[in-house]
Amino acid sequence: QVQLVESGGGMVQPGGSLRLSCVASGFTLNAAKIGWFRRAPGKEREAVSCIGTSTLPERYRDSVRGRFTISRDNAKNTVSLQMNSLKPEDTAVYYCAADRLGVGSPDTWGQGTQVTVSS
């Protein structure tokens, strides 16, 4: 069964850090383009970061560049999102997604993990 499972969300104060993990089953993560997305209350879903299958650099939306880092651990079939210097506006449900077919859009989504940044 093809599946993505996120973990690592929680509540943190502004300026704090969290590390989200996305574990894949049923397929090999390093053969797919993986993205992290988020949806804040009352807002549209937005792409946060993505990592490809080649040597191309990772991509980040402007508001998180320099604070978030996406990485792969092929041995664990996991993609992580290290989030530092968190801000209240980072509060959202975070999803990982995989473009396994190489069509430019995700075909597999995780269930999401809540991140809340609040004092």
Total helical elements: 0
Radius of gyration computed on alpha carbons? 13 Å
- SS strand fraction: over 45%
Uncertain regions spanning at least 5 consecutive residues: none
Helix content: under 10%
* Cα-to-Cα separation, first versus last residue: 40 Å
Tell me what you see in this structure.
Strands 2, 4, 5, 6, 9, 10 and 11 form a 7-stranded mixed β-sheet that branches. The mean pLDDT is 95. The protein has strands spanning 3-7, 10-12, 18-25, 33-39, 46-51, 59-60, 68-73, 78-83, 92-99, 108-109, 113-117. The relative contact order is 0.32. Helix content is 0%, strand content 49%. It has 119 residues and is mainly beta. The chain is globular.
Brief sketch in words of this structure:
With 119 residues, the protein is mainly β. It is built from no helices and eleven strands. The strands form two sheets. Strands 2, 4, 5, 6, 9, 10 and 11 form a seven-stranded mixed sheet that branches. Strands 1-3-8-7 form a four-stranded antiparallel sheet, with no helix packed on it.
Write out key terms for the chains shown:
four-stranded antiparallel beta sheet, seven-stranded mixed beta sheet, mainly beta, 119 residues, globular
Q: How are the secondary structure elements laid out?
A:
Blueprint: E1 3-7, E2 10-12, E3 18-25, E4 33-39, E5 46-51, E6 59-60, E7 68-73, E8 78-83, E9 92-99, E10 108-109, E11 113-117
Parallel strand pairs: 2-11
Antiparallel strand pairs: 1-3, 3-8, 4-5, 4-9, 5-6, 7-8, 9-10, 9-11
